[in-house]
Amino acid sequence: MARFGAAGSADDSGNGGTPARRGRATVPPEDADDVDACREAALRLLDAAPRSRGALRDRLAGKGYADGTVEQVLDRLAELRLLDDREYAESVVRACMGRMMGRRGVLAELARKGVDRPVAAAVAQEAEERGLFEEAAWELGRRTARRTAGLDRDVRRRRFWSAGGRKGHDPETLRRVAAELLD
User: Fold this and answer.
1) pLDDT for the residue numbered 26
2) Rounded Cα distance, 144 and 91, in Å
3) What is the Cα–Cα distance from 89 to 31, expressed in whole angstroms?
4) Residue pair 138/175 in contact by the 8 Å Cβ criterion
C-alpha cells in the first residue's frame, strides 16, 4: 500500500488524498456522539499544547466529533478550569511581548490562535493600560538603534518603521520612539 499513488489519485489515509500529519491518518471516531472518546481526544490535544476553546473546537470537529458533543466536552473542560481562553490569551500576550509586538500584531496572533474577539480585545486593552505595547515599541527602537548604528539616518528610520509596522505598532508610538532614538 503506497502512501502516494499516481498523480491525482487518493491514498489510503482516509483524508481525501492528502498525506497525514506525522505519518498518522485521521480516523473518524466510531461514534461521533461518544463524549468519553471526545473528552480523551481533547485531553490529549491539551496535553500536547495549550489551546484556545476555538482551536480545540476546530481540532475535535476535524476529528469527526459531533458539534453538540464537542460543545459538551468543552463546557466540562472549562468548568474544571482545564480550558480557559482568558488565561491562554494572557500567555499569548506574554509571548508576543518577548517578540516586541504591538497591539495590532497581538490581536492578529490571538485571532490566528482561535481566541474569541471579545476576550482578545479585553486582554489587549489590559496590556495597553499596563504600557506593555509602549515598552515593546521602545525595546524594538533600542534594538534597531544598536543594530543600525553607523548607518544613514534615513536607513535607520526606515528599518525601524518597517519592523514596527510588521509587528503591529501604532504610528504615533513609532513616531515618538524614532524621534528620540534615531534622530
Assistant:
1) 56
2) 26
3) 32
4) no
d(CA 174, CA 183): 13
| Residue 87 scores a pLDDT above 80 | yes
Query: What span, in angstroms and rounded, lies between the C-alpha atoms of 31 and 20?
Result: 21
Euclidean distance between the first and the last CA atom of the chain, given in angstroms as a whole number? 66
- Cell 534594538 locates to 143
What are the φ/ψ torsions at residue 27 (nearest 5 degrees)? Answer: -105, 125
Single-letter residue type at 178: A
Q: Which three cell numbers stand for residue 31?
A: 461514534
pLDDT tier at 33 (50, 70, 90 boundaries)?
confident
* Helix or strand run (H / E) with residue 96: helix 85-98
Q: Which three cell numbers stand for residue 137?
A: 515599541
Residue with cell 526606515: 158
CA distance readout (Å), 13 to 7, 18, 39, 111: 16, 8, 24, 30
- Residue 152 carries which DSSP code? -
The per-residue pLDDT for range 65-81, each reduced to its tens digit, is: 999 999 999 999 999 99
